[in-house]
Design goal:
- With about 140 residues, this protein is mainly α.
- It folds into two domains: about 55 residues, Multidrug-efflux Transporter Regulator, Chain: A, Domain 2 (Orthogonal Bundle), CATH 1.10.1660; about 50 residues, no CATH class.
- It is about 55% helix and about 10% strand.
- The protein is built from five helices and four strands.
- The strands form two sheets. A two-stranded antiparallel ribbon has the order 1-2. A two-stranded antiparallel sheet has the order 3-4.
- A hairpin with a 5-residue loop joins β1 and β2.
- The chain starts with a helix and ends with a strand.
Length: about 140
Amino acid sequence: MRIGELSERSGASARSIRYYESVGLLTSRRRTNGYREFDADALERITKIKLLLQVGLDIVDIVTVLPCVDKPSVPHCAQARQRFDEQIERIERQQQLLARAKSILVELRTQGTAAAPLPPGDSVRAISANVTLGVR
C-alpha cells in the first residue's frame, strides 16, 4: 500500500511514517514511479510503535525493543525487558502520585481543607484541554 493509504488506515501522519522508515522501524520498496510501497504488515508495526510511544518509550527505545516485541528470542531482549521494567516502575510512581492528588482534591471539595501536601520533588502532570501543567 502507498504511504497515503497507510497513513489513513493507521492514523499516523505520512511524515511520521517517513520518520519511522528513516530510523529503521519500517521498510518500503520504491515503485517504478518513485512512490513508496509498504507491505500489509506495516499497519501492524505502526500500531505497535504507537502503543510503545503511548506507554512512554521514545523512538530510540523503540528501535531497541521492537525486535523483542516481534520475536522475544532476539539476543538483546534482556535490555528490552529492563526498559519495560523501568517504564512499569515509572507508571506505578505516577499512579501513586495521581491517587494522592485525587485524595487531596476530594478532601478540598468536601471539607475545604487539604490533606498533607505531596512530598517535595514529586509532581503530578495535570492535563486540561491542550495545556499541560506541572502541579506540586
